Amino acid sequence: MSDWYKKMSFYQIWIRSFADGNGDGIGDLWGVYDKLEYIKSVGVDGIWFSPIYPSPNADFGYDISDYKDIHPEYGDLALFKKVLDKAHDLGLKVIMDLVINHTSDEHPWFQESRKGRCNPYSDYYIWRDTPNNWESLFEGNAWEYDPQRGQYYLHIFAKKQPDLNMDNPAVRKEVEEILKFWLDMGVDGFREDVINFISKKEGLPSGVPLLPAVNGMPHYKDGPHIYEYNRQFRRVCQKYDCFQIGEGPMTTLKSALKYLTGPEKCLDMMFSFDHMMADCFYTEYMHRPFSLLKYKRAISKWQYGLEGRAWNSLYLENHDHPRIISRYGSEVFRVKSGTMLAASYLFLQGTPFIYQGQEIGMTNIRLGRIEHYEDVSSKTNFHRYHLKDSMARRLHRIHLSSRDSARTPMQWDDSPHAGFTVPQAQPWFYVNRNYTEVNVKNQEKDPSSILNFYRACLKLRKSSKTLLFGGYREHFPKDRYVFTYERYRKDIRYLIICSFSESAVAFRVPREYEGRTGELMLCNYEDREKGPDKVRSIGFLRAYETRVYRFRF
Ligand code: GLC
Ligand code: CA
What we know:
Layout: E1 10-13, H1 29-42, E2 46-49, H2 77-89, E3 93-98, H3 108-113, E4 127-128, E5 143-146, E6 151-154, H4 169-185, E7 189-192, H5 217-220, H6 226-237, E8 243-247, H7 253-260, E9 269-271, E10 280-281, E11 283-287, H8 292-306, E12 313-314, H9 324-328, H10 334-346, E13 351-355, H11 376-384, H12 391-401, H13 440-445, H14 450-463, H15 465-469, E14 471-475, E15 482-489, E16 492-499, E17 505-508, E18 517-523, E19 531-534, E20 538-541, E21 546-552
Parallel strand pairs: 1-2, 1-13, 2-3, 3-7, 7-8, 8-9, 12-13
Antiparallel strand pairs: 4-6, 5-6, 10-11, 14-15, 15-16, 16-21, 17-20, 18-19, 18-21
The structure holds alpha-D-glucopyranose (GLC) and calcium ion.
Alpha-D-glucopyranose binds at residues 59, 62, 99, 157, 193-194, 247, 319-320.
């Protein structure tokens, strides 16, 4: 297996809100086809498609009703192939989302399975006469009674997402077929959804008292056959030059290393979650003030922890989290904090992922009523917790946490509906009102825009072996306002300095850099001139200022 993915960066498409090509208000593959040059221009080398398969959209594509087709709203297989070919022509790899922990309840397998106990699909899902006490992550109890079958089925996520029974060899065979289907078509790999949940502990023991919604997790995370099953799938993938990145909710460094190294190795990379909890307790719904110390601790833990052993995946946004500027930065200092956040992660060791709209600094949407939200988990959280709080407070929690903030239509220009769809159409979801200011078209023209800063970062990263492969070192880990890290290789060192403060702060330079002349490669304040710069031991950073220096030692 080659490791081409180490030099890459990816752009994530959540298709429904990306670009509408046929004027029905819903993003689609025609839209993607037209925007491939734009994606390329950002400086990435690949695309990850969140699910584009047929789906009743109870969880917007993560509830699949046919693994080997394209949702008719988004196009068809022939169009997908066209997109794939064009992407390849542009030098972009394409990876698909593999969602095998569960299907939609409208998948034919489930339709058959619920019919009775002795047909080929009876054991495709997890059925019990009496449920245990597990709670689901998305919708109350993890068990739903099915009157047709007269039993309960397990759903770790929403009711319309029944968990597959991976212990059944026939189900694993189906997964193999799905992998082959897409790999034969030419896709380059998979992002594997909640892949650490697919093997459940035998006997499904009762959950332990923990936070609400996760009491069963110790019994379904990293389960007894998790590596065995994933290795079976990896064997199929290894026949192709493809790569696999697993999403590992709540994964620890220790367990990630098992997926990524040694005899059990079954994935190339894993999405970890620790650094996404610097402003919350476990989920964004349990909000806490942002703590830079937490962010830095999480980053360094994974950087040091995987170095020389495995490869990090780097991200700040995806379709499951609110917008990062609204969380770790500041909407008031949108451009400065958006650019600084980019530098805070794009130069780490690993493969960066950029989520649609992140590269132009899109921010959270705040809708006036819970009924206006679409995301199943936001709705459940609203109706499940803090019921004694005022309406306004409960809605505020949704504003801080909803996944829908990442799912508003992409802001292409300042025309009606942000250019996401034709003026006469009604977009399927609310466009953020700031689109007249925050959009691709404006930022193309502006050399100091967030978009152009992302471009500059990705270009710099790619041009340097030190930034791609060098070691990582954090400086001043106890500093509550500034994140300073270094990448080193041979005699070259990069020093990346990021202020997370909205007022000016003093910063120190690591001792071995004092008095040296470095070259300022990037800065998000235009008045600071690029080029040779003598570094003094103490300096000041303005609001959310970031600087990237290159030194020869
Ligand atoms: C993953 C997906 C998320 C989905 C969940 C269930 O976490 O990223 O969007 O809701 O799995 O499939
Ligand atoms: Ca459309």
